[in-house]
Specification:
Helices cover 29% and strands 36% of the residues. The chain has helices at 3-8, 24-34, 39-42, 44-50, 60-74; strands at residues 15-16, 20-22, 83-93, 102-116, 119-130, 138-147. Strands 1, 2, 3, 4, 5 and 6 form a 6-stranded antiparallel β-sheet that branches. Strand 5 and strand 6 (138-147) form a beta hairpin.
Length: 148
């Protein structure tokens, strides 16, 4: 997909990634990396007993971190950019928790493409689906800038 293809696809789903398993090992690694070792994420027994979810849940920011991997898989953007930069998010929400052991995938829709000095900014609508769940794990507009 080229930038012009993205412009033509505004408002239409551009791709869906494959499933990514978010197992307890991945949650534990993220907890160690970030220092967020809250029991809801890392203590399976306590989470079974005391949490409203009945088990451990992934960090919301782990789901955000997995976006790079999933969006790259979902949309094969072939632009001869020197540099791609994460410019931030609009309306980032976590409607449902990702239980450890769940599988997630992303649905990607271009919302807008605008020219910026030296490149373009793409506003991607991203929705992270949890397998066999009606509510998404994440819904956001992700801004990515590409410089040529």
């Amino acid at each position: 997909m080229q930038i012009e293809d993205v412009r033509q696809a505004i408002g239409k789903e551009a791709g869906v990634s494959g499933w990514v398993e978010v197992d307890q090992g991945l949650v534990d690694q993220f907890a160690e990396l970030t220092g967020d070792r809250q029991w809801i994420h890392v203590d399976a027994e306590r989470a079974r007993r005391e949490s409203p979810f009945g088990g451990t849940v992934a960090h919301g920011f782990l789901t955000v971190a997995l976006l790079s991997r999933m969006v790259t898989e979902a949309v094969d953007l072939r632009a001869n950019a020197k540099l791609r930069v994460n410019y931030g998010f609009n309306r980032l929400r976590f409607p449902a928790p990702v239980m450890a052991g769940s599988r997630i995938r992303v649905h990607v829709t271009p919302n807008a493409v605008r020219d910026v000095e030296g490149g373009v900014e793409i506003a991607w609508g991203v929705t992270v689906e949890i397998e066999n769940q009606s509510k998404p794990a994440l819904a956001a507009e992700w801004l990515v800038r590409m410089y040529f």
